[in-house]
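Supplementary Methods. Inverse-folding protocol.

Structures were first reduced to a discrete structure-token string of length 166. This string, shown here, constituted the complete conditioning input.
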């Protein structure tokens, strides 16, 4: 690569690459959050509309509580995502927060999607209700672009100061 095409300073390439990973984590966290929000919306809509044994299924706490729980976890994960994005936009270090946001949003998004499928019963597998797609897409975000285990490794080593585990 000719010097004229070099990005930044020599010897700092890996640092630049790592800097690019934080916004990617934020982007994926936002995707997971959006999937979770869409899942909750559809679960609520179906819970209000589907009548079984003479009452809307959303009246049953067995279905209502998991969706309320998912909603709160999405709210909490969103706060971490917003903090990480604010740090990144301010040009400050955000490795801890970006990783944490990716982890929490991926978990909250997946849980919301799973519960939305449950709310839909068998219809959870019907394409027309979209939640099966949210479920598949939310599942991926626990693996890529960085797996949940590697986020835990990062926090264990770099945030908590425990020995590197791999
Ligand atoms: C649909 C899709 C799109 C993708 N797009 C891209 C892309 O655009 N760019 C890109 O670079 N990559 C992409 N990837 C790759 C993705 O980043 C990797 O799949 C992911 O980082 C996991 O790596 P791996 O598949 O090699 O799993 P492996 O490294 O083989 O790990 C397998 C499992 O073991 C766990 N594991 C491994 N080591 C440890 C350890 N020490 N402690 C605890 N758990 C451990 C992992 O977390 C994982 O769950 C994509 C993957 C998919 C599925």
């Amino acid at each position: 690569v000719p010097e004229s095409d070099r990005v930044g300073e020599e010897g700092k390439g890996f640092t630049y690459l790592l800097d690019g990973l934080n916004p990617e984590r934020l982007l994926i966290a936002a995707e997971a959050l959006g999937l979770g929000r869409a899942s909750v919306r559809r679960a609520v809509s179906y819970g209000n509309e589907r009548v079984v044994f003479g009452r809307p299924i959303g009246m049953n706490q067995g279905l209502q509580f998991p969706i309320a729980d998912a909603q709160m976890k999405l709210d909490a994960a969103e706060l971490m995502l917003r903090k990480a994005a604010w740090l990144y936009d301010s040009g400050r270090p955000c490795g801890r927060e970006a990783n944490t946001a990716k982890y929490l949003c991926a978990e909250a998004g997946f849980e919301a999607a799973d519960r939305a499928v449950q709310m839909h019963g068998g219809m959870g597998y019907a394409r027309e209700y979209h939640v099966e797609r949210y479920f598949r897409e939310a599942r991926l975000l626990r693996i890529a672009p960085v797996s949940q285990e590697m986020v835990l490794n990062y926090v264990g080593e770099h945030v908590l100061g425990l020995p590197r585990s791999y």
